[in-house]
Amino acid sequence: MKSRKTKFKRILLKLSGEALMGDKSFGIDQKFVQYISDELKSITKLGIQVAIVIGGGNIFRGLEASAEGMERTSADYMGMLATVLNALALQNVLERNGMPTRVQSAIEMQELAEPYIRRRAIRHLEKKRFVIFAAGTGNPYFTTDTAAALRAVEIGAEVILKATKVDGVYDSDPMKNPKAKKYNEISYINVLQKGLKVMDSTSISLCMDNQLPIIVFSLMKKNNIRKILEGKKIGTLVKGG
């Protein structure tokens, strides 16, 4: 049964690696990670089951390294390892905040994280543990956006919450164009046709095939996650049209 106070029972939160940088230009800003932890702590009483996929762009970006001449597969594996570092950093802060957390890695590393096992992940969620999925899909050529869509479908999440630095999806970059138009709702097809940078095309297609909605919202505004879960219209909803 869903809580009367909330719109969803199980969600997947997609965090970019850059989100962990805060105001820094590289690495992890512990103060901002604490802010993320506090935002998640505020929803624990709602009874929501929360899975998280985190990127690694604050430490290493495989695609950029590949463009500079590194062999793509090696670059992507290095990017996956960066996501493990971020997952462990986030786990540490969440657990210091009294929130039981498990990291599951798509690349086996027994001393650091559990291997990704779907049924085990679901069991953790049912026990109200936060589950962080690290190392992407475990395969090169796939982004952490695709990993988020894949894991969300596998665990039966009802929505992907895509945390960004802007308050939704725009027809152009609002940082560069002050006249950029924000969409309150947009279809998967329109996202693909317009080439909007919501998530990559593989992840959008996977969400479309499985009718999994995406809510793009600003992580920078306090209590946005809780407001979304309470049913308030925050950010941009991407769904079938």
| CATH class identity | Alpha Beta
In sequence order, what are the helices and strands, one letter per element? EHEHHEEHEHEEEEHHEHE
Please tally the β strands and state the result.
11
Q: Give the full name of the CATH homologous superfamily.
A: Acetylglutamate kinase-like
Average pLDDT works out at: 94
User: What is the overall silhouette?
Assistant: globular
Unreliable stretches: none
Percentage of residues in strands:
15-25%
Number of domains: 1
CATH-defined topology: Carbamate kinase
Q: Total number of helical segments?
A: 8
Explain what the structure shows.
With 241 residues, this protein is an alpha/beta fold. It has one domain (10-239): 3-Layer(aba) Sandwich (Carbamate kinase), CATH 3.40.1160. Helix content is 36%, strand content 19%. It has helices at 30-41, 62-67, 72-96, 118-126, 144-155, 188-194, 201-209, 224-229, and strands spanning 10-15, 49-54, 101-105, 114-115, 130-134, 159-164, 169-170, 182-183, 185-187, 214-218, 236-239. The longest helix has 25 residues, at 72-96. The model has no long low-confidence stretch (mean pLDDT 94).
List the helices and strands and how they pair.
Blueprint: E1 10-15, H1 30-41, E2 49-54, H2 62-67, H3 72-96, E3 101-105, E4 114-115, H4 118-126, E5 130-134, H5 144-155, E6 159-164, E7 169-170, E8 182-183, E9 185-187, H6 188-194, H7 201-209, E10 214-218, H8 224-229, E11 236-239
